[in-house]
Amino acid sequence: MNLPRIAVLTGAGVSAGSGVPTFREAAVGLWSQYDPQKLATPEAFQSDPKLVWEFYDWRRQIMVDCQPNHAHDVLAAMDATLPEFTLVTQNIDGLHPLAGSKRTLFLHGDIWTIRCTRCHYRQQNRQVPLQPLPPLCPECASLLRPDVVWFGESLDWTILSAAGEAFAQADIALVIGTSAVVYPAAQLPLYTRKHGGRLYEFNTERTPLSDMATATFLGPSEDTLPNWWQDFRQEQGL
Ligand code: APR
To answer: Smallest Cα–Cα separation from 88: which of 179, 186, 15?
Structure first.
């Protein structure tokens, strides 16, 4: 019997259980303390690279000791079990690969990769704190930047179209820990719905996607997703 094809979209909420701050929750949301337009844009980097690097270095220091939680582990198990599975993440914290996820598309980049603003230099770097700030390219001495997608920058087209393809082919879309307000990511799960697939949402609150969801599992995804996966495996005889 063919197993259902699954496509997953994750956001900051999947890492909340690992201690990584989310962006939009008023209480602890990262953005509530900073004006994103001041920090995560090419213009901000142009005008004050040191300030932007201080912001990312601070986030790296928060993230560097965070470990994957049970939701990350379940997604890695799905990847290892299901023949047709794609994980699309908006997160830059690196917790999905750390948990063992393989077939992963990174829509917004990776905070642990640093690249040159001029030449092709690119480096995996988990050094915290980074010194000196802003770091300069060892090849051409130009400014290095975090390999993340800033507000106003376009996503990598090949990654985005592969993500769109995965959701268009999926029988089931899982949307986990995202406020579903940032496009084009928030659009992706609707491709599954459009061709009659099911959309399951895992969040601590309802979102603009909830009305289109087959079901919304309210609660921390580190609890709700493992329960769903257990039921799914029983149902599929896995
Ligand atoms: N389990 C499930 N969901 C959770 C949990 C949890 N333990 N904790 C919080 N959430 C939910 C919140 O209810 C919220 O809907 O996770 C969501 C986090 O939303 P955001 O903070 O907006 O993060 P995200 O959706 O990933 O933001 C998208 O916006 O700022 C840009 O590039 C940035 O990738 C980011 C994008």
So the answer is: 186
pTM of the predicted model as reported, rounded to 2 decimal places: 0.95
129 preceded by cis ω (within 30°)?
yes
- Each residue's pLDDT tens digit, 61-80: 989 999 999 999 999 999 99
Q: CATH number of the domain that 39 lies in?
A: 3.30.1600.10
User: Is the separation of the CB atoms in 30 and 59 below 8 Å?
Assistant: yes
**Residues 57, 76 share a domain:** no
Which residue's CA is the nearest one to ligand 1's atom 6? 220
Q: Is residue 24 part of a domain?
A: no
Q: What is the pLDDT of residues 85-128, one digit of tens each?
A: 999 999 999 999 999 999 999 999 999 999 999 999 999 999 99
Residues 143 and 161 in one domain: no
Active-site choice (72, 108, 120, 195) = 108
User: Does 72 share its domain with 60?
Assistant: no
Position 132 in a domain = yes
| Whole-number average pLDDT of the chain | 94
Which domain range does residue 104 map to?
Answer: 6-19+68-108+155-236
**120-169, pLDDT tens digit by residue?**
999 999 999 999 999 999 999 999 999 999 999 999 999 999 999 999 99
CB 108 less than 6 A from any atom of ligand 1: yes
Whole-number Å distance between alpha carbons of 13 and 80:
23
Read off the tokens for 237: 């005889």
Whose CA is closest to 7, among 161, 157, 188, 224? 188
Q: Select from 191, 184, 178, 183 the least CA-distant residue to 5.
A: 191
189 lines ligand 1 (CB under 6 A): no
